[in-house]
Amino acid sequence: MHIRALTSEIKSKAWVLVTLLGVVAFAVLAYWPTWQSLHNVWAMLDQSYSHGYLIALVVVYWLFKAVLQYQASPKPSYVAVLGIIALGGLWLFGEATQTLLLAQLALPCLLWFSIFAILGPRFAVSVVPLLLIFIFAIPLWDILTPILRGITTYVVQFGVSILGIPAYFDGFKIEVPAGVIEIASSCAGLNYFLMANAFAAIYSYQNQLDAKRTILCALVATAIALVGNWVRVYILVLVGYYSNMTHSLMHSHANFGWILFGVCMVPMLYVFGRIYATSTQAQSAADEPSPPKTQVDLPSKAFITSVLLVCFCLALAPATLHWNSAKGDVASYEVSTINGAKLSQYSAVAWRPAFKGYDAHYSWLGPVAGLQAQLQVLLYAQQAQGKELIYYDNLLAPAHNLKKLGDFNANGNMPLAMAVVNSGGQQRLLIWSYNLGGKYTTSPISAKLLQFLSLFHQQPYAALVVLVFDCQTNCTQEQAVIHASPSEIDVIFSQLNIKALAPSNKWK
């Protein structure tokens, strides 16, 4: 009877399921580059997000099951379309500025608002937990890795001291007589933490637990996952010590970790069962009569209109990105300075900023404010993920060699900054700024905003512009001279010309 009833439900709502599947497929194709970035993370086995596909399949399964169990007719909501447009803008900003996490976070929210617009607010609210479950597959949890890694190190250090094992802890490294054991980032336990909490969320949703019991399940899952990881790392340290670092587990212990995690699932399931047994929903769900069959209705005009409107709005952001994406390369740019004959091109440089991924480096040499100076431009003709101007690993110099002196106010109120760098015993005074689409800024946030705006002007380039002065001693004399001649500094930056000669557009 149950299979027959389920078959009847599927037939009665086949058009809703097919439509929903079509919208999901359309969203995957439209936002394919971002989905592919998630695939790249999920496909890395034995890493923190290798459970991503499993969560995605579970969410899709429960979504379609929720459609089958939902008894009301679809009530399209055109207000939700505004959410699709807003989140499309967020995705566009993330993709255009290589802020990948924003683009990835926008994807499940876009799907949720699409469901909201097609099936109505009541159904959308009922599947909010599925949206939250999917968050465990988004790589935003790496911020927890240093914290979990530090706690794991502290716990292992405490355990080692109890046994009296001679070990010296240097950060995350453990020096034992036979060698060195490092508690790497992968040993922080983030993967077990995410898997356990995702399972707790799925269990709570499946059994319709209230908020209090859902939080309790999450706390239990977190505790068991963390303790299990501590035990795992502690055992590995003991094995390394007692086997003089010769045991096979010291070279390959991924399977050992998952076996131990599976063992930890047994008490976790037991506690979840006890939590569920205390819920009044457990008994009421068993006594609840089967829901009445829904009437087979053909799609209404409002439903069809909402589907078409959703697809149109989903396509807006990818189309905007495609339409305005100019493919820049070094050959399509002219970089020059028109400061008379004072500055001349000079290729040999004794020092350059510790930036990576730029497409070309330009330099000029000449007198500025009576001092010998070198103007350097690091050009990013086309920014991409891992090849961008604003990046955590892009530094003027390592922090211990760099002293920031604050803003430098030129006559034209151009946003410039000043710093002193020590390289090989040589002090150098720097005046620098970011140039994006002809606009200067020293703020990384402002640089991202300018990068986004430059998308609509088909000026994809970005550049770091640095004026370098070699100092005689500690750069105080050079600072005084430069502060006395702000107009000359202003001329250098304002007359720098980065011109797009022939930016090519995908649609032309």
TrEMBL record:
The keyword Protease applies. GO terms for biological process: proteolysis. It is found in: Cell membrane. Keywords: Cell membrane, Hydrolase, Membrane, Protease, Transmembrane, Transmembrane helix. The chain crosses the membrane at residues 14-32, 53-70, 76-93, 125-144, 151-169, 181-203, 215-242, 254-273, 302-323. Its main location: membrane. GO terms for cellular component: plasma membrane. GO terms for molecular function: peptidase activity. It holds the Pfam family DUF3485. It is a multi-pass membrane protein. Its EC number is 3.4.22.-. InterPro entries: EpsH-like, Exo/Archaeosortase_dom, Exosortase, Methanolan_biosynth_EpsI. It comes from the Bacteria. Residues 313-470 form the Methanolan biosynthesis EpsI domain. This is Exosortase A. It comes from Saccharophagus degradans.
